[in-house]
Amino acid sequence: MELTSQALNWWPSPAKLNLFLHINGRYDNGYHQLQSLFQLVDFGDQLAFQPNQSGHITLATDMPDVPPENNLIIRASLLLKEYAKQHTTAGKQNQVDTLGCTIHIDKRLPMGGGIGGGSSNAATCLVALNFLWELGLSSAELQKIGLTLGADVPIFVNGHSAFAEGVGEKLQNITLPEQHYLVVFPDCHVSTAQIFQHPDLPRNTAKIAISDYNFDNTKNDCQQLVCDLYPNVANTLHWLIEYAPSRMTGTGACVFAMFEQPEYAMQVQAKLPQGTSSFIARGINTSPLHTHLQSLQSKKIAR
């Protein structure tokens, strides 16, 4: 019998905000050297997993805008299997081959928004299937796998708000004030590849120490370029900054405003121009994905 949505065990896949994003240079391999402050929030997608022994990864939820070969959920699951197969004994490799899963997704985060939707989905797959398939891989190993999928995946595997360096994989956990954020999506999809390949992108911002951070002395180095290329982002940011400290996250298109009280965020949200979508979220320091994992681990031990 097919399980109902209520009967599925849903795993959180939270969004993130880049409170700042500085591009410090470029490595020899072409990747950008950056610094950023990742703020996790208590809003995101949800994924549910039905493990089986079919050897196949199946996505039960239709995602017509994402070809299967580009879907980070499928790619993360297959890479996890391949890594586990390579790092197990010869006698257990056949067991890894038979691992399969049907995956459901409740998608609430926009694609191309700069809030890590696809990367967070990939991280939730790695963390959840490592537990459900009883692979026993460490967080460091899962982050290593995740980095091959995208620079933002390790922050979600790590599961804590963090100061990031390198290409985004060198993480230093940090405790941030739990402010409230109005996150606005201005109805356009920004290509991360386009922005990072653009000749006008600033690439020489001086490094800062995390102890020197405050919102006012930092910026998002991608913001001006995205605003020049995408008028919807510029207009939304120009509107939002009249109400609260505001900035673009990641390579866009989402912009956010910071509030100490959620009531004021709700008042501003009610005034948003037509053609945008939005959500209000609380900044959190520990990912709900890890809280969920710890709960399941505790129940497993108690049995």
Q: How far apart lie the N and C ends?
A: 26 Å
The count of DSSP E runs of length 2 or more, i.e. the number of strands, is 10
Structural class: alpha+beta
Give the CA-based shape.
globular
> In angstroms, what is the radius of gyration?
20 Å
- Give the integer mean of the pLDDT values: 94
Helix content: 25-40%
Number of helices: 10
Largest sheet: 10 strands, mixed
Low-confidence stretches: none
Query: How much strand?
Result: 25-35%
Question: H/E element string?
Answer: EEEHHEHHHEEEHHHEEHEH
What are the SSEs and their pairings?
Layout: E1 10-26, E2 32-52, E3 57-59, H1 72-86, H2 93-97, E4 100-106, H3 117-132, H4 139-147, H5 153-158, E5 162-165, E6 170-173, E7 180-185, H6 192-197, H7 223-229, H8 231-240, E8 246-248, E9 255-259, H9 262-269, E10 277-284, H10 288-302
Parallel strand pairs: 3-4
Antiparallel strand pairs: 1-2, 2-4, 2-5, 2-10, 5-6, 7-9, 7-10, 8-9
Helix pairs in contact: 1-3, 3-4, 3-10, 7-8
Written overview of the protein:
With 303 residues, this protein is an alpha+beta fold. The chain has helices spanning 72-86, 93-97, 117-132, 139-147, 153-158, 192-197, 223-229, 231-240, 262-269, 288-302; strands at residues 10-26, 32-52, 57-59, 100-106, 162-165, 170-173, 180-185, 246-248, 255-259, 277-284. The protein has ten helices and ten strands. β8 and β9 form a beta hairpin. α1 runs parallel beside α3 (117-132), α3 packs across α4 and α3 (117-132) packs parallel to α10. The longest helix has 16 residues, at 117-132. The protein starts with 9 loop residues before the first strand and ends with a helix.
